[in-house]
Amino acid sequence: METRKVWLVTGASKGLGHTLVKKLLQNNYAVVATSRRVASLIEEIGNTSEVFLPIEVNVTDDHDVKKAIEKGIAHFGKIDVVVNNAGYGQIGTLEELSDEEARENFDVNVFGSLNVIRNVMPYLRHQKSGAIFNISSVGGLFGGFAGWGIYCATKFAVAGFTEALAEEVKAFGVSATVVYPGYFRTDFLANGSVKTPASAIQEYEAARESEKTHLNNISGNQPNDPEKAADVLIAISKEDTPPVHLLLGTDAYDMAKNKADLLNKDIEQWKSYTLSTAF
Ligand code: NAD
Description:
Blueprint: E1 6-9, H1 15-26, E2 30-35, H2 38-44, E3 52-56, H3 62-76, E4 81-84, H4 99-127, E5 130-135, H5 149-169, E6 174-181, H6 205-218, H7 226-237, E7 245-248, H8 250-269, H9 271-274
Parallel strand pairs: 1-2, 1-4, 2-3, 4-5, 5-6, 6-7
Helix pairs in contact: 1-7, 3-4, 4-5
Bound molecules: nicotinamide-adenine-dinucleotide.
Nicotinamide-adenine-dinucleotide binds near residues 15, 108 and 184.
């Protein structure tokens, strides 16, 4: 009989992470769930049990992450699937955002996931199996959105290191997938999740307009369902060879196609310059 698979999900107190954890537990998986406040995990999902381990973790703290993974291994004996989900959107143009605002977004979205990967890989490498899902965004594939440059840069970083990770770990029987969600109806664009610039500059009209549209119109009306995203992640985890790139949502599909077309157009249009540089 196959033993119960153990998932580790970061940022599980709300949104996509929360939906995924609930669904995993309904489907007889075991889950290590992390959040900045363990009380919110217990309130939302439940207390420690044979199948559930809620842990308070600050993903930006390498030591904290290491301890959490050790606790997960001590509780369940293994971890099979890792979902680097914790993250937030920082709105603001490159000029508006302070060094601190930009770095904080990278700390959580990029270095937080790196902390998890660094500390979980010793276990996956030794057990010679495992799957890692790194949640990027369609903004990690196409960055042409005024006022979203730093957030997109964090998600491009996630995509970049996931491609490398997939190559590094495949010899150990471990897969790595970068997930590019389109707009999903979570708290992502709500107060308390998304951050706006501390010092906005009104002259950046396109960015201000985009900020307003996201906060007032898109929030709550996103076209994609987190329950269905959770179903897809569970289904993909059962594939023999999970993909390196996974798009989620019609909007993500369209944006990815658009990006591929734009890239191909530039590649071909400027080809003579591109090919002119050899010795
Ligand atoms: P959400 O705001 O509902 O949930 C985000 C989760 O990340 C929460 O559990 C939160 O506690 C955690 N988190 C946020 N800031 C954190 C911090 N500073 N330190 C540690 N944890 C933190 O949003 P969501 O939509 O569920 O987001 C999940 C992931 O999906 C994020 O990485 C987000 O960038 C990505 N994403 C979301 C969408 C969308 O439309 N919802 C689209 C593309 C990508």
